[in-house]
Design a protein that fits this description.
445 residues; 2 domains; Immunoglobulin-like; 4-stranded antiparallel β-sheet; 5-stranded antiparallel β-sheet; 16 helices; 16 strands; binds iron/sulfur cluster; alpha+beta
Length: 445
Amino acid sequence: MAIFHGSRQWVVPLTIHGTFTRLHKASSALLFAFLLVVPWLRWKGEPLILADLATRRMVVLGQIFTPSDGVLIMLLALAAAFSLFLFTTVFGRIWCGYFCPQSVFMINLVHPIEAWIEGTRSERMRRDAAGWSFDRAWRKAAKWAAFAAVAVGVSMSFMGFFARTELLWTGQATPGNYAVVAFFSAVWMFDFTWFREQTCNLVCPYARFQGALTDDHSLVISYDVPRGEPRGKTARARGGCIDCKKCVVVCPQGIDIRDGFQLECIACGRCIDACTDVMTKLGHPTLVRYSTQAADEGRGTRSWLRPRTLVYGGALTALLAGVVGVTVLRDAIEVQVDRAPGSLFVRDDDGFVRNTYMVHVTDRSSAEGERTYAVAVDGLPDGSQVRSRPLTLTAGQRSSTPVVVRIPEAAAARTLPLVVTVRGTDGEARHATTFKGPGADAGKD
Ligand code: SF4
Ligand code: SF4
C-alpha cells in the first residue's frame, strides 16, 4: 500500500500534556461548541446564525440581513480581515494554533481517535513497519470508519449554518444541501486520512501571507539558541539542550523548532510543553518558548504600540463603529420599486395616464407574528388615483405587490418625481421613483 510506504514521511505525533495543550483543548472546546451547538439555538423563533441561500437572507442574533445590506456585509468582511491582520501582528499565528478548524480537528479529533484505536505512537509505528496483518487491517478499517462518521457529522453541523437543522437532520432539506454535505464530508475524509498537515504546509494561503503581516515584535515560538547550543547528550555538549528530540516528536507538523522559524509551524505550543516537561526534571527553564525576533536578537522588550498595530487597530475600530452605525440606523423595512415590464405608460380611455410598478417589501424586524404593510404614493397631482394591496409579512419575509398610479393626462405630460412609501406598525420606508407621462421629456429619469 503506497499510501503507507511511499516517499512521504508520515507524522505520528507523541501525546503530550501541559499548559499549551490545555489551552488548545479549551479553544477547541469553544470551536466545537460553536460548530455543534449554535446551529440548534433559537432566538425569537429564528436560528441564532443562518445564511439561508434559498431565500437570500441572513439571520444573526435576531437581525435579518438581505442582499441590499451590501455595505454592511462589506464592512463586516473588512472588519474580519483587519482583526486577523491585527491579531497576527500582535500574537503571530494564534489563529492557526488555537482556532483554525484544520488544526483543532487534527490535534483534538484525528490524533486522539488514532491513539484510541491504534495505540501509542511506538505501538502504531511498530505495527505499520511490520506490514499488513489482521490486527493492523481491522484497526485501520475501524479508524477510517470513525473518521467517516466525524467527517459527516462535522459537515452536517457546518451545513446547519446554511439550512435549518430541523430540516437537515430529518431528511427534509434540499438535495443541494445534502450534495454540499457530501462534498465537504469527502474533503474532510481526504484531509483526515491522507492530506493532514500538508493542508497547512501546501494549501493554506494564510500560512503564505502571514510573513507580510508579522514584524520583529510579533509573538513566535522560538528555541533559545544561546542557552540550548551546543546541544548533545554527552558531557562535551555544554548547551542546555540534551537533544532528546521530544519537542520534535510531539510536533503535529513534523518539524524541528530548533532549526529556527519555519512557515510550517502553526504555533500550537506543544513543543513548549514537551521541553518544559524535560527541562523541569533537570531543574531548568524551558528552551522553547513564546518570544519575538527582536527579543531573541537582544533588541529591547516587546512593544505593543507599533505602526502596524496602530494602523490595523485604528482601521478595525473604525470598521466596527461603521458596522454598529449601519446596523442601528438601517430601516426595519426594505423597499424596492421596479417599473412593471412593458410600455412606460398607458393612456386610459377615461383621460388618465397609467404607470404600473412592482413594489418589493422585506420585513427585516426580528419580532414574532405577522405585520401588515400598506403602500402609499406621495407627490401626486390633484385628482390622481392609486391602486395597491396591503402586504402581510412575518420576520425576514419578502413579498411583492403591483401598484397602479393614474394621473389626469393634463397633469401627466412630463416626468414626475414620486415617493413610494411602505408603512407598517414598526415604521415606514420610502423609495423615490418617477411617473412617466406622454410629454416631451418622457423617457428621461
Ligand atoms: S514547532 Fe512547536 S509550535 Fe510549531 S507546530 Fe511544531 S509543536 Fe507546534
Ligand atoms: S525538548 Fe528541549 S531539550 Fe529536548 S531536544 Fe527539544 S529543545 Fe532540546
